[in-house]
Structures are given as structure tokens and as C-alpha cells.
Specification:
Blueprint: E1 4-10, E2 17-18, E3 24-37, E4 43-53, H1 54-63, E5 69-82, E6 88-101, H2 105-113, H3 149-152
Parallel strand pairs: 4-6
Antiparallel strand pairs: 1-3, 1-5, 2-3, 3-4, 5-6
């Protein structure tokens, strides 16, 4: 079985391209944090190449930008080619079956406009005016709720 599920942020704005037979596609890199910390206590990041085809590629290019938070489900595909110097190069890509947008366009745009602010996480809702407080289990708690990342490991 060859299945991959990832959550991460786009490292660049995706660009729509077309094959010789006019089939739309896009390629982008997804920054995905590892589940564990290194010896210095920092989490390392993997940069994973993603390929998206057809209508999904058009949607990705239309609605996503650098830094957008997405989940990708697909399969790993390997390949090889000879570079201009005749050296064999190997590739590994995730061919996406599904790309889910995990934040609104407004959240993505506001994050991109605030250069000095820290990178938001999917759980960072301080500036989200659209959060549904009626269904928020911590709405009447009175203080900020902090969950230590080590608790999740």
C-alpha cells in the first residue's frame, strides 16, 4: 500500500502549468514539521515535493499562496532523469489525490501581511474573529488555555 498524509505550509506560491496535451498541473514544496525535537530541543522541518493535477491544481493555484496551511493525501512516486551534465538524478514526489485547505483565505492573507508576527499554528485563534464561541468548550474558562506540545508526543 502506498498512501501518504501530510499537514504543512506551502513554501512558495504555486504556479499553474500545462502538459503538451493541455492537462493542468502544479508543483510545490510543503514544509512539514517533524513530531519530535532534535538534541537542541528544536523541531526540524522536512520539505516535501508535491504534484497536483487537473481541477485540483487549478484550485490550488487560485486559492493558495506561500505559507498556506494544507493537508495533502496521496501516494509517493519515484523517478529519475539525466541532468545536463549526464549525471543521473533521482526524484521523490507525493502525487496528491486530495488537497484540503486548513485555513480561510482571510487568515492566510492576514498572516502574510503581518511580517513581524510569529508563524501561526492551526491552533492559534487569537486574531480569528470568525471563531464560533458558542461551540468553544473553553469559552467560559476565563483564562488562556495552554497545552504543552510534549503532552502530544
Amino acid at each position: 500500500m502506498n498512501r501518504v498524509m501530510l499537514i504543512g505550509r506551502l513554501t512558495t506560491k504555486p504556479e499553474l502549468r500545462y502538459t503538451g496535451s493541455n492537462l493542468p498541473y502544479t508543483r510545490f514544496s510543503l514544509a512539514v514539521n517533524r513530531n519530535f525535537s532534535n538534541a537542541q530541543g528544536q523541531r526540524e522541518t522536512d520539505f516535501i515535493n508535491i504534484v497536483v493535477w487537473r481541477k485540483q491544481a487549478e484550485n490550488v493555484c487560485q486559492y493558495l499562496d506561500k505559507g498556506s496551511l494544507v493537508s495533502v493525501e496521496g501516494r509517493i512516486q519515484t523517478g529519475s532523469y539525466d541532468d545536463k551534465d549526464g549525471n543521473k538524478r533521482y526524484t521523490t514526489d507525493v502525487v496528491a489525490d486530495s488537497v484540503q485547505f486548513l485555513e480561510s483565505k482571510a487568515q492566510s492573507q492576514s498572516r502574510n501581511q503581518t511580517v513581524d508576527s510569529p508563524e501561526p499554528t492551526p491552533y492559534d485563534y487569537q486574531d480569528d474573529k470568525t471563531m464560533d464561541t458558542e461551540n468553544d468548550p473553553f469559552a467560559d474558562f476565563g483564562d488562556n488555555v495552554s497545552i504543552d506540545d510534549n503532552f502530544l508526543d
